[in-house]
Amino acid sequence: MAKANQTANGVSLVKGGTDKKKNATWKTRALLWVGSCMVMASCLVGNAAAESNYSIDWTAMGDMLDGVSGIMPNFGNLIMAVVPVILILIVVGFVTGFFDALLDGIKNAFSFLKH
């Protein structure tokens, strides 16, 4: 088993076992990504500087939010509808678990009579 070839996700597991080709590829990708981000940022700044009087039309966004809020129920009403059901399930689960544990305890207490 050669220790120089052991890698995990492109990272060498053995000290001193670097792969120069992978490092060069990684550096090239990082440089390309940073360069493309800088070009896009300069384009955005240039467009923003070209328009001296600009405004954002928020009416479409407001209409969309009104539609979404019409579909979704009021969260207060939703919580008030769900909480009683959850409380009833908690009480029923506690009572049934308590009686189950009580019956198991009684059965285990009198298990010596079976022998």
Summarize this entry quickly.
This protein has 115 residues and is mainly α. Helix content is 69%, strand content 3%. It is built from 3 helices and 2 strands; from the N terminus they run ββααα.
Describe this structure in words.
With 115 residues, this protein is mainly alpha-helical. Among the domains are: 34 residues; 42 residues. The chain is 69% helix and 3% strand. It has three helices and two strands, in the order ββααα. The mean pLDDT is 76.
Layout of helices and strands:
Layout: E1 7-8, E2 11-12, H1 20-50, H2 59-71, H3 75-109
Antiparallel strand pairs: 1-2
Transmembrane segments: 30-50, 78-103
Keywords: Membrane, Transmembrane, Transmembrane helix
Number of helices: 3
N-to-C CA distance: 62 Å
Listing every helix as H and every strand as E from the N terminus to the C terminus, the arrangement reads EEHHH
- Please state roughly what percent of the residues sit in beta strands, choosing from under 5%, 5-15%, 15-25%, 25-35%, 35-45% or over 45%: under 5%
Low-confidence stretches: none
Helix/strand structural class: mainly alpha
Search tags:
single chain, 115 residues, mainly alpha, two-stranded antiparallel ribbon, 3 helices
